[in-house]
Amino acid sequence: MARKLPAVDVVLVGFGWTAAILGQELTDAGLNVVALERGGWRDTSTDFGVTFAQDELRYYWRRALFEEPARETLTFRNDQSQTALPMRHLGSFLPATGVGGAGIHWNGQNWRFLPSDFVAKSHNTQRYGSLPDGMTIQDWGVTYEELEPYYDRFEYICGISGKAGNLNGKIQAGGNPFEGPRKREYPNPPMEMAYAPTLFAQAATETGHVPFPCPSANMSRAYTNPLGVTLGPCTYCGFCEKFGCGNYSKSSPQTTILPVLMRKKNFELRTECEVLSVKHDMAAKRATGVIYVDTQGEEWEQPAEIVVLCAFAQHNPWLMMLSGIGQRYNPQTGEGTLGKNYAYQIVSSVDVFFDDKIMNPFVGAGALGIGVDEYNGDNFDHAGLGFIGGGYLACWQTNGRPIETHPVPKGTPKWGAKWKQAVAKNYLTTATIATHGAVMSHRGNYLDLDPTYHDVHGRPLLRLTFDYTDNEHKMSDYLTDRAAEIAKAMKPREFHAKKREGHYSIVPYQTTHNTGGAIMGTDPKSSVVNRYLQTWDLHNLFVMGSCVFPQNPGYNPTGTVGALTYWAADAIKNKYLKNPGALVQA
Amino acid sequence: MSGPSVSRRDLLSVGVAIGSTAALGSGADARSYAGKMPWIPGEANAPEPITAGPFQFLTPDEATFLDAAVARLIPADDLGPGAKEAGVTTFLDRQLAGPFGKGSRWYMQGPWKKGESTQGYQSRLSPAELYRAAIKDIDAHCNEKFSGKKFSQLTADQQDQILKDLEQGHLKLKDSEGKTFFTVFLQNTIEGFFSDPIYGGNRDMVGWKLIGFPGARYDYRPYVKQHGKKLNLPPVGLKGRPGWNPNT
Ligand SMILES: Cc1cc2nc3c(=O)[nH]c(=O)nc-3n(C[C@H](O)[C@H](O)[C@H](O)COP(=O)(O)OP(=O)(O)OC[C@H]3O[C@@H](n4cnc5c(N)ncnc54)[C@H](O)[C@@H]3O)c2cc1C
Ligand code: SF4
């Protein structure tokens, strides 16, 4: 039996990006907030010091900062005819454990989605007619215009470095001309640009594109954010994604919010506390609190007036399934919503090899790069192409970490003398163009509970059924072909376009951009949460993170995750507290 | 995670501890923090370098096998030392003796099925068990095929052929899966050749020197705009550079 603790106003499940934002906003509104985080406390000087943060083996390959599958994992299969098997070690994506969540070890590639992304279904059907069979995309129930102030808020908290491309409808030279209108400039100027992205920018311009510096959560200069927290300039250390920043230069909960939040009297953080389920009273349409377990195996009940799931994408729908909340999605009938529309990202790349151009790839930062956006979303006419959606192309210079980075020409063996020679020859002189594509949701891609495998607490694992469809492959091939055209214009010795072929695999790292499963929308028949991220079933249960995306656009998620969190915080503070109940009538 | 080097005593003074001894997970306790920023002066979650001395996991036979095999995966040549000279066998030994070898972060519950390649590692063997079984199997195979010889006694060409057969899944082993072993082994060899020298491989930073990686530096601001320039920065490791610490 769980021991019952005194009630609080708000309990936050997890303590990463979304929980840090909510903690700050809801304590500001005078509420007593408790955050429960399964991992430990960690901070810059003690855990990511510049004397040891740059340890590729420990942090990336031995996964020091990430979730341990031994405790929790998921099972995976490509389609319903297969038996799902456990993801025994991490690969395709790297969920976090510990204070700050994946905000610690993200790249900081911080984008806004396009205005048309939020109305993907109505926009695409209006322009191109009916959708391919089995495609289950939806409109979000919130618009770009509504979210603009909240994007702005997250960007200023983070101190994003970038150049506006559209200020109040006026296209700006040097920025991304395709972005939705923004009210003001980025808080910081773009980062200094390394050689490879600069060559890419030249070739992109020559081939008729409009290249721009990608928006970055790596500081281009010292910056003090609206909460009064100061970040230091990025040193282009090249140990950014998958690592903590030793310089206070990458926006994370620790470098932007926690120094203020942790000092507040009405906030408490409990670490090494893993939430097992949400308690609720269906008749009253209320969550009553959460059950969590500490490291001794002792169970506790934390009653609360408001419960917010901030446990990262797939963990939020999993917790709801384990708690018996919502109606689970059935891919046969299409009924039910919980677990529906899981999506991901589809990525490919083109390696561009030179003889004489030294790129110094180790001079890098997580979001240092030049992008082109001509082929994202509906920025181009899809008539006759056989797919919808798109993605950006970018030449990033993130790192030259030597276990991870050894580009070699096509046909090189994977080991032996020839491999060694090719690695030595190409390491300093190769650029890579990445494509970062959308994944539309599909009837057969979903989350449910595994019938066979269990986690360390004996709970059924989440089961992921996912594969790319024709739409993704055609779209990704199209992006890769465009990237190859720019690669050619860079006049290299040779280039190697690596198309994304075959089934989705859980093995190689791709992105930690898992989306869907607790999607937002306009109606309880087709979504789990309403436009304010409030569950349709329990009016005091809110769900944050990319699990609410009805499908995954062609950008990294966190800019939008942050904006949606500020948007929801605003609704809780200014609407819900005044009149607790459903914010949207079903 | 703060890990073991942040002492419990220090953290307890920060707030109220809810748990006390660790039963699960990271070895840390449930803790509560309120009203101030947790701050532990002088603490750092520093890495643990390997200790010198004899092998901790490998038998002499296994070490002989690995010396021979890593020398084929990354051979010594005109460009410089290979994996054997870089100490990759010592690196592998310490990795296999530690948490990686035990698969302590991996999900190792049955039932066990082979699965599709897209479903990833599905062997019931931990990495250390996999190495032990595969090395035994490969030497047994060589013994049979090359009249009593072990892998390490074959010619370089014969060794390469065996490795290729493993890589392509053509060599069927008795108690282990050849292709699975090869994938893990190649990855670990590359890790040993290019990781920080504190872990036993990349001796004298030969891997980094081969490609021109400057190592564990942290500030490249002066170099971002030096487009196209060869920097020739000598590598440093987490423990510095031999020139700084003559005895390390
Ligand atoms: C390697 C990597 C690179 C990335 N790069 C980018 C990028 O460049 N651009 C971009 O936009 N996005 C990027 N992301 C994604 C980004 O980090 C996430 O979108 C963001 O952190 C999500 O915030 P969140 O609050 O939903 O989850 P998180 O920040 O991950 O926080 C979730 C927290 O909940 C905790 N938790 C989970 N379950 C429980 C439980 N049952 N009980 C208690 N606590 C629990 C976890 O331990 C974790 O600390 C990257 C992610 C990774 C891993
Ligand atoms: S690249 Fe910059 S932001 Fe990223 S970890 Fe290094 S110093 Fe920090």
Kindly list the characteristics that best describe this protein:
heterodimer, A: 586 residues, alpha/beta, FAD/NAD(P)-binding domain, six-stranded antiparallel sheet, 12 helices, B: 248 residues, mainly alpha, disordered N terminus, binds flavin-adenine dinucleotide, binds iron/sulfur cluster
Description:
- The complex is a heterodimer of chains A (586) and B (248).
- Chain A has one domain: FAD/NAD(P)-binding domain.
- By secondary structure, chain A is an alpha/beta fold.
- Chain A has 12 helices and 22 strands.
- The mean pLDDT of chain A is 98.
- In chain A, strand 19 and strand 20 (460-465) form a beta hairpin.
- Chain A is globular.
- Chain A starts with a strand and ends in a 10-residue tail after the last helix.
- In chain A, the strands form 5 sheets. In chain A, strands 1, 2, 3, 11, 12, 13, 14 and 22 form an 8-stranded mixed beta sheet that branches. A 6-stranded antiparallel beta sheet of chain A has the order 8-16-17-18-15-21, with helices on one face. Chain A has a 4-stranded mixed beta sheet with strand order 5-4-20-19, covered by helices on one side.
- The longest helix of chain A is centred in the last third of the chain and has 20 residues, at 470-489.
- Chain A has helices at 17-28, 44-47, 56-61, 120-128, 144-158, 195-206, 253-256, 258-261, 315-322, 417-426, 470-489, 558-576; strands at residues 3-4, 8-13, 33-36, 74-77, 85-86, 166-167, 170-171, 212-213, 223-224, 230-231, 267-271, 274-281, 286-293, 299-309, 346-353, 369-372, 391-396, 430-437, 446-454, 460-465, 494-498, 541-543.
- Chain B is an all-alpha fold and 248 residues long.
- Chain B has a domain at 8-21 and 49-106 and 122-213.
- Chain B has 8 helices and 1 strand; from the N terminus they run H-E-H-H-H-H-H-H-H.
- Chain B has helices spanning 8-12, 60-73, 88-97, 99-102, 127-145, 156-167, 178-194, 206-211, and one strand at 31-34.
- The radius of gyration of chain B is 22 Å and the shape is globular.
- Chain B starts with 7 loop residues before the first helix and ends in a 37-residue tail after the last helix.
- The chains are: A alpha/beta (586), B mainly alpha (248).
- At the A-B interface, helix 2, helix 3, strand 5, strand 11 and helix 10 of A face strand 1, helix 6, helix 7 and helix 8 of B.
- Strand 11 (267-271) of chain A pairs antiparallel with strand 1 of chain B.
- Bound molecules: flavin-adenine dinucleotide and iron/sulfur cluster.
- Residues 218, 234-237, 239-240, 245, 247, 249-250, 365-366 of chain A line the site of iron/sulfur cluster.
